[in-house]
Amino acid sequence: MPQEDCRPSAAPRQLVTAQHVQQSGGDRVALVTGASSGVGQAVSLALARAGVRLCVIGRNADRLAQTVASTRSLVPVESFRVDLAADADLRPVIEYLQREVAKLDILIHSAGIIHQSRLEQARVEDLEQQFATNVRAPYLLTQRLLPLLVKARGQIVFVNSSAGLAANRPEIGQYAATKHALKAIADSLRAEVNPLGVRVLSVYLGRTATAMQQRLYREEKRAYHPESLLQPEDIATMVLAALALPPTAEVTDISIRPAIKG
Ligand SMILES: NC(=O)c1ccc[n+]([C@@H]2O[C@H](COP(=O)([O-])OP(=O)(O)OC[C@H]3O[C@@H](n4cnc5c(N)ncnc54)[C@H](OP(=O)(O)O)[C@@H]3O)[C@@H](O)[C@H]2O)c1
User: Fold this and answer.
1) The ligand 1 atom nearest the CA atom of 85
2) Atom of ligand 1 at shortest distance to CA of 133?
3) Domains of the chain: which residue ranges?
4) Substitution site in 208, 229, 238, 256 for ligand 1 pocket (most atoms within 8 Å of beta carbon)
5) Which of 1, 52, 153, 180 holds its CA 20 to 30 A away from the CA of 73?
6) Are strands 106-109 and 29-32 parallel, antiparallel or unpaired?
7) With respect to CATH, is domain 19-256 assigned 3.40.50.720?
């Protein structure tokens, strides 16, 4: 890939807020995976409010339609029902972006799944399914879309997990392995694409009140109090703030936890 001179210009500095995404949002385009639920849905809405044109991906048609319904009055939105574990499903999305948009400013990888189990009982099929969704799919999608991201000097966001930094509790081994892998991909990619003007952010979440977390509480036989957890909108606020920084600055990693632990 050709190396370009992406050294920051000596333009005067000013305080940058999330509104800067809005100000420059007009012609910007984002692809969001996992846009039918939880964090991806909240980030999609925040991007739309900032005026960023959307391409959203999910599997569940009804919930994907909800995302489209809540954003289409704000920005143009294109939606794709995609199983990220099926390579062939990716083709229409990639072709749409190549043909209709010809660049990509923001790529948000939020789709993810989790299976918890002790190693002696765990199913290797669950490990493979998590690898396909949490690692292989974002890797492949990024690889295919990298020319469009380089063209736009874009930004890539990997929605990771605190389990991507440390696997220090039982039953989390499979999921944590995939999120550690995602961290490795993001860190190495950053070193490759920073010289081309592309920025890479990993966001390491603690427990967030989404459908995924509700299911985990049910499986753990614990009372679910979503109000005590991170909210998907909290994550969206942090992501938008990082995306709003000028190209002279890169936020590489954000760890965000519920204030109340336990
Ligand atoms: N919630 C938490 O506490 C927490 C903590 C740490 C990290 N995370 C990470 O945050 C990200 C978002 O999770 P969430 O909490 O928002 O979960 P969620 O509400 O369950 O949403 C998961 C999203 O991933 C999509 N998805 C899953 N498998 C897919 C596949 N094969 N093809 C296409 N889309 C697929 C789902 O689409 P459909 O629903 O349409 O199938 C859904 O939109 C994940 O990467 C997760 O690992 C979450």
Assistant:
1) 31
2) 31
3) 19-256
4) 208
5) 153
6) parallel
7) yes
Look up the pTM and report it. Answer: 0.93
Which residues, at least 6 apart from 147, have a Cβ–Cβ distance to it below 8 Å? none
CA-215 nearest atom, ligand 1: 20
* Concatenated DSSP letters of the chain: ------PPP-PPP----THHHHHTTTT-EEEESSTTSHHHHHHHHHHHHTT-EEEEEES-HHHHHHHHHHHTTTS-EEEEE--TT-HHHHHHHHHHIIIII---SEEEE---------TTT--HHHHHHHHIIIIIHHHHHHHHHHHHHHHHT-EEEEEEEGGGT---STT-HHHHHHHHHHHHHHHHHHHHHGGGT-EEEEEEE--BSSHHHHHHHHHTT----GGGSB-HHHHHHHHHHHHTS-TT----EEEE--SS--
Tell the residue number behind the tokens 């660049």, with chain if given. 103
Torsion of Cα atoms, 112 then 182 then 203 then 209, to 10°: 20
Q: In this structure, are residues 201 and 154 in contact, taking their beta carbons and an 8 Å threshold?
A: no
Instruction: Quote the ligand 1 centre to 212 CA distance (angstroms).
Output: 7
- Give 213-242 pLDDT, tens digit per residue: 999 999 999 999 999 999 999 999 999 999
What tokens appear for 239 in the block?
Answer: 């992501």
